[in-house]
Design goal:
18 helices, globular, 22% strand, 5-stranded antiparallel beta sheet, Uridine Diphospho-n-acetylenolpyruvylglucosamine Reductase, domain 3, Alpha-Beta Plaits, Uridine Diphospho-n-acetylenolpyruvylglucosamine Reductase, domain 2, alpha+beta, homodimer
Chain lengths: 461, 461
């Protein structure tokens, strides 16, 4: 920590005496990275306990020229919560209350630090749920979900976070406290990756839990064929609430992790669709019949989970994919792209080819229903040559995705890792526009400097 | 037309020689108003036929200081397309092609001047439809729908326009041509009411037409009771795709208009829910059974339309509401508010009380499923005292709606008519922010000056 930063944070501590602010090394290290493994360095970590604490921290940090890094659970995959030098991490860990729940209005108001899974636990006894369900939902926070406009397996039916935010209370870089309704400034705060303002609380739309749910694992042959199968199934009139793809390498990896590899040996299929239907019992029965007929007609093997405990086993398999891949290598390069559904059969084949070209070990899975695929490359950061090849692969991947009409990020955001590729996705005019908007909302770049589109024109020229 | 404006438009005409630009009085009058009846005055009306024409008009009008009023079909209810003095109306009438349709990608790309109904006609033979269906869909354009973020009866199930816009091609006030994806600048162009940029074309998500649809008219007693019924029906597990409310005065008005008043005489009910279910045949049958059981149990009268021609009759009734009300008085004050569903039973009673307080004739109907009500006051603009009372009613209405947690506009926009009430819905900080954003995207207020939040701080102080 350089001396000037040390003095500034000392002065900040003096000014906001009643707010918890840790400057010890172990705090600065523990809050210095996110799920990318990228490490940054901060001058301290603050733990506001109310909107007043929050406004006080922001106002004073701003006036002292200390950048603020908003932080939920730090589960992001693009470096969005990694601190820059001399910055203050502001954690939402202690602002995590449910403020109100109104059954008639199908609405809950929560502080931004509440964990998505805790919100689901709260709603369940009332018979309600909150649709967005990122794979990280057991640890990631609603504030982080909003900042990244998170999706999840249910996004195929329910759409992403944006659809569920009715209003936000947030704090500007000057410490001004604003409440914005859907359609106002809320439209750009959602998905702004902590670069425009600090979200204190949100009013969210919630829904009654469907009466019946059934979960399926459908095996097919090659990866491209499985994607074609997904399209064909939808055209046949099958209407799942969840439609996920697991490629042949990924299913082996997760099966090995769970110790159930032997089950796969006996099957002729190789890659899989993970499916769920929901609704009334009559409706789910009808969808199940439709799927059974389809599988019989096409000679496909279907695993069905109707009971809650069986469904939980299949979901465990789905949710273990990321942890199983994380164990497979020292450094996991994790990209997340989105393409129109019709392009996916070609895309999975092409992406594996691109990986083979660079002699890389590649795994593909994700929310194929809404065109969002996760692409994981197993590497070892100590192997410089391999990391270079991985970088080249990522560039080729993005070039391919943009040319095919897709986007650089389905749900993981731009953060630090995708900044170098922004000019592939946005024209100079568009980047200039986004930078101007950042400029009027957060003129001093107090929030999350150097992330997303902040100061991007300097970088892309 | 003052001399200076005349000279400017003459110079513009010289510069953009190949673009149709009419300055005759009858053009200036015909394009001088919208569905509010408010009249404005423009210097001319331009009819671009391509994106190049459009860029040329905007660039030159901007450099000559001529404000631009983007105009679709002029069906707006808030004065959004009413020209201000000295401005140029730019009509999208001649940019209305379908640019591409991709069945695999569930996507259509259209120019902004295409009429919503024409797009539906185009999609139907392919078995597809575009969900947003404002009551004006037979005349209003996709560009106007996007600018107002239009809804419609189907919005209860499908959501509003924002959900269906995948990307926009648009032109800035300096004539720069940009393509923006979902989540970029698109987020604020949608619903910006023509104040930020000129939309040339849009890539829209479209959906396969459901296999079966059934339509119902459900009669209940008082207006408040009918709203309670709507909530109760939803809680019972009934899941309509359309859920509309028609109050007791409105149903009589539209029945009289259609010459079917005698049918109502024989019924004991007074206000109505207009319902539709869709899905597979098994699903719609199940929903119908559910609704029949519910009505039998509660002693309610249900009219069911299963055949296409019978459904069309019920829809004709629904769509004739606005025309029937328009015929009822010389001046129709038409407000559109949104409230949480749970607040509606109280709201319909309270709104009728507010109207009675001011001795006004009030009709309420609308998309109660998503909390969006249309409130119509029958007046005569020649009766100054009555118009004053109508103005007081509108103010009381908005005060009530904001206090109850609602918004000033469900789908009609702010335009001119709701500008005086913006400070009820937005804090000064929020208005300042919106004005700043207008300032960076359209620094000279070239687009639709004096509308929505443009220069609003001067007005609200």
């Amino acid at each position: 920590m350089i001396d000037e930063s040390r003095m500034r944070v000392k002065e900040l501590k003096r000014r906001i005496r009643n707010v918890t602010l840790h400057t010890e090394d172990y705090y600065r290290i523990a809050y210095g990275y996110d799920a990318t493994g990228i490490r940054g360095s901060c001058v301290g970590v603050a733990f506001p306990e109310s909107e007043c604490d929050l406004a006080l921290i922001i106002k004073n940090a701003n006036s002292l020229g200390i950048p603020i890094i908003p932080r939920g659970a730090g589960t992001g995959f693009s470096g969005g919560s990694v601190p820059v030098d001399g910055s203050l991490v502001v954690s939402t860990e202690k602002i995590r209350r449910v403020l109100s729940f109104d059954r008639e209005m199908n609405e809950v108001e929560v502080e931004s630090g509440i964990v998505n899974g805790k919100l689901q636990d709260y709603l369940k006894p009332f018979g309600f749920f909150y649709p967005p369900d990122p794979a990280s939902y057991k640890v990631s926070t609603i504030g982080g979900n909003i900042a990244e406009n998170a999706g999840g397996p249910r996004a195929y039916k329910y759409g992403v976070t944006r659809r569920y935010v009715r209003s936000l209370k947030w704090i500007t870089s000057t410490g001004e406290y604003l409440e914005s309704q859907q359609g106002g400034p809320t439209a750009f705060l959602i998905g702004s990756e902590g670069t425009l303002g600090f979200i204190y609380s949100a009013r969210l739309a919630v829904f009654p839990i469907p009466k019946a749910r059934k979960t399926f694992l459908l095996g097919a042959s090659g990866d491209g064929d499985t994607m074609n199968l997904a399209s064909d199934l939808l055209h046949s009139g099958f209407r799942p609430s969840v439609l996920e793809f697991i490629d042949s390498k990924t299913i082996r990896c997760v099966a090995e992790y769970l110790g159930i590899l032997s089950i796969l040996e006996n099957r002729g299929d190789s890659s899989y669709l993970f499916l769920e239907v929901e609704g009334t019992e009559i409706e789910t029965d009808e969808q199940q019949r439709h799927l059974n007929d389809y599988c019989e007609c096409h000679g496909l093997t279907l695993t069905t989970a109707e009971k809650e405990e069986d469904r939980e086993i299949l979901w465990e398999l789905r949710r273990s994919i990321s942890p199983s891949l994380a164990r497979r290598s020292i450094t996991k390069v994790n990209e997340d792209i989105a393409l129109p559904l019709g392009k996916l059969p070609e895309a999975v084949v092409r992406i594996h080819e691109l990986a083979r070209d660079k002699r890389l070990d590649c795994y593909i899975f994700g929310h194929c229903g809404d065109g969002n695929l996760h692409i994981n490359i197993m590497t070892d950061r100590r192997n410089k040559k391999e990391m270079e090849r991985a970088g080249e692969f990522v560039e080729n991947l993005f070039l391919y995705v943009i040319a095919a009409g897709g986007t650089l990020s389905g749900e993981h955001g731009v953060g630090i890792t995708k900044r170098p590729f922004l000019s592939l996705a946005f024209s100079p005019g568009e980047l200039r526009l986004q930078e101007k908007i950042k400029g009027v909302i957060d003129p001093g770049s107090t929030f999350n400097p150097g992330k997303y589109f902040d100061n991007i024109m300097e970088e892309v020229g």
